[in-house]
Amino acid sequence: MPKEKIVAGGRAWPSTNVLLTVGIVVFAIIVLGGVLLLGGDDKPRGSSTVPSSVLVNEDSHRITEGGTEVTVVEFLDYQCPACAAYYRNITADVERDYGDRITFVVRNFPLDNHSLALPAAQAAEAAGMQGKFAEMYHALYDNYEQWAVTEDGDQLSDDEDRARAAFDAFAKEIGLDVDQLHTDMASDAVAKRIEADKVDGEKAGVTGTPTLFVNGERFTPSGETFAEVKQQFRDRLDAELAR
């Protein structure tokens, strides 16, 4: 019997069991219709620039702050398999290689069909209230298999107790006050931050994840593998830095 498909970013993706069998890093080979899809929406929206006031505000989390010439903004869903694959194949390397030259901003866009996306966003935002947003952001993606998928790796998980236990473990590893994390995860302040990100994402035309913008323009790749998309993204950054 064929493996059940799971939905990520508004598209059907192969069973997570397949991804974990070969490793999510090999998710780069997964294509649909010959074109790698970004953010569940393969229709380019043109070259119009989204106002910076929509994409970034003073409270937005900056993973890197290496320069003001180039700003990358990613709207993401922590449980989204495509987001995890982008992190492992593209954005983690960009953070390492370009972090001293660009500002990289991440914003929440948890999708309704990912039941653990909102608790994960709450954990990241709560960690940010203790000054450790970037550390939790990395922990959620670096340890994706520990909370986002079922233990047998067959599908996305909906086990919130297991996920929260994982978040607690990450919190301890990065030196957070776990009780305070729990309080902040349930707070109105965190809820408002996540909702504000979603509202801005909708204003920017975001319909799925991951969706990235470079200096206000949506990045819409044409590559068929993550290696190709990664090179296209780096080329775009290099062009912006050379201006």
UniProtKB/TrEMBL annotation:
Keyword field contains Membrane: yes
Q: Which domain of life is it from?
A: Bacteria
Q: Which UniProt keywords apply?
A: Disulfide bond, Membrane, Oxidoreductase, Redox-active center, Signal, Transmembrane, Transmembrane helix
Classification via Pfam families: Thioredoxin_4 (PF13462)
What range(s) does the Thioredoxin domain occupy? 44-242
* Entry annotated with the keyword rRNA processing: no
Q: Which stretches are transmembrane?
A: 18-38
- PANTHER family from the entry? DISULFIDE BOND FORMATION PROTEIN D (PTHR13887:SF14), GLUTATHIONE S-TRANSFERASE KAPPA (PTHR13887)
Q: Belongs to which family?
A: Belongs to the thioredoxin family. DsbA subfamily.
The protein here is known as: DsbA family protein
